[in-house]
Specification:
With about 80 residues, the chain is of the alpha+beta class. Helices cover about 30% and strands about 35% of the residues.
């Protein structure tokens, strides 16, 4: 497995997520989920999600991180 380098673009310590950009240009949201046991979930943003992020900025990222943790089965995780 080839591991791509990721650059942090934005981090929200209150909602515990980080937006990163992979070498290939993909945007990746790494959200920390859970209440008792915490676990990280990495999701590559789709074209629609990237467009929404460009329109709404941090407000959209906040919503997306919360939604990923509330309904993780709706998203395709990246395993690293």
């Amino acid at each position: 497995m080839v591991r791509l380098m990721e650059t942090t673009l934005f981090s929200n310590s209150q909602l515990m997520y980080t937006l990163m950009q992979a070498e290939n240009g993909a945007l990746i949201l790494n959200a920390t989920c859970g209440e008792v046991a915490l676990y990280g979930v990495k999701v590559e943003l789709t074209t629609d999600q990237v467009e929404q992020y460009h329109l709404e900025g941090q407000t959209y990222l906040d919503w997306l991180a919360i939604d990923i943790c509330k309904r993780p089965t709706r998203y395709k995780f990246i395993y690293s």
